[in-house]
Amino acid sequence: MNTLNDTFLSRRDNTFSLQKIAKSFFEVLSFANGALSRRDSPLLTVDFSLRCRNTHDSIVPQGRHYQVSPLRGEGGVWQAVRRLKSTVNKVSSLRDCAQVEFAGLAKYSTSKKDLARKIVVCLLCVLLAAPFHSCTDTNDGEVPFATAEELLITSFLEENPDTYSEFLALMHACGLDKLLNAYGNYACFIPTNDAVRAYYTQKGTSLAQLSEEEVKDIVYNHIISYGTSKALESPNFPVGRLSMPAMSLRNLQFEFADDGSNIIYVNKSPILDRDKMLQNGVVHTVGKVVEVSKTQIPEMIQDAARFSLFARALFATGLADSVRIVENEDYKDKKERGEIPERVPSKIAYDNGKLLITPVACKYGFTLLVESDATLAAASINSFDDLVEYAKQDFARTYPDETDVPDVTNRGNSLNRFISYHIIDRLLDAADFIPDWWTRPDPTKPASSYFYSGVVLTDYVETLAHRLIEVQKQSGQPVFNKRPNGSFVSLLPKGDVVNLTENGVWHEIDKILTYDGVEAEVLNKRIRMDVTSLLPEVVNNDLTTGRYLQDANYHEVILPTNYF
Description:
Elements: E1 2-3, H1 18-36, E2 42-52, E3 58-68, H2 73-89, E4 99-110, E5 121-128, H3 153-158, H4 161-174, H5 176-179, E6 186-191, H6 193-203, H7 212-220, E7 223-225, E8 240-241, E9 253-256, E10 264-266, E11 269-278, E12 281-286, H8 297-303, H9 308-316, H10 319-322, H11 329-337, E13 343-345, E14 355-357, E15 366-370, H12 373-377, H13 384-398, H14 414-420, E16 423-424, E17 458-462, E18 468-474, E19 477-480, E20 489-490, E21 500-501, E22 504-508, H15 518-521, H16 536-540
């Protein structure tokens, strides 16, 4: 056991204040924090008591818990200090105390092994004092006192069992309750008790019947960790896919009701209450368990009966297999073996060797633009044979100098080329085609700082046919290959369906998408495009959140050799 000497306490003028109590607490935390700094990502738990020695009244009950990640350094420690002071601020009986006894016990456990190893720091301080004059002074300009105690996320859920006890039980089952009672920045979409019970009924299961992995999948879909960045609040909900994945490594999708109800949905779950700000993040209450689709995109399209012709062609050409890949396994293995370090010095001279992070993964993504059977029927395509014949005629017009290869699995085949032109080699939800950061890379500045309102924003995306699609924004929505006569292909509302999966998204389009005439009518001009339009790896790994290569937490990124 290590004991801290109490001589660090100031006793000037025989007075003491909350700042001195906080300083005691800070010394306890700092001592243990420093001792743990080389450990493997431990969590530091501090139990402390604070009582009036002359009256023996408990000011803060024994067993009050605070958790601090040592990796956060003094900032994390001071967050815990603020919470202690905000508690003490509310105790009027402290004014009558002549002596205050403060004892603290600090212990840690590693996140990987969850061992109850201990580093014990015991502090028994007797503070001699005159009565308090004020509980709200700022004392020499140090950290200001909190005006109200803020709960950590797990504590908040525990204090509201009528609403959250069912999901809290899931958190306990997979251990996430401990993580969310430590400091960090988390956005949590927590379903109500009724929502969780409805989920059990729908699935014909219960908590007792779920495996540990199933529980983890459910819970992790609802939690997003923002590290050192600010957690997601409702004013920043995107339209469509959120670039920062949930802890399940799956992306969530937001929709805004267009019926005037002001309801926002996350993966089809209505958000009932927004922006409960807590010490380590924000809680949004949802009316349905958030689910993510585990169906791969070819099967997702195949399961939608209205896309039967397109789905048949997708599988017949073998292109269904081309859009199943999720991640570059070679990059993943090198990361796990440490061959690709987490940080690499910048190679730019004026950066002076600044360390930049390397991407966590190298993921693949795909976007499919799909015609329904009804849209194809409008062009007299009523069967698979009709579609094959249409593709042959389109190929003859578009590629007059090339020979149509009979094998439909060959990229030189007319049907294969037709379907390939509908597949973009990056994951783009509707709002991602020309993202908001193009016009406002710095959200603190007005959009007019970056572009003229009359300019038509244009981008180009490459397809698996190795041909470009031109994208413009019209009334806030992307339109494709706008011709001189004003015609274009656009997205149809997706309705009450899920179109996003782990490595892809599909969009229904209102007309047949063809490359016929595009070179002469659309691309016959000087083309300017964002450089990331040429790099699907940058888009698929969400490294385009600003003016520079940054991840979803706005950390500057360096791309290692052979990343592409």
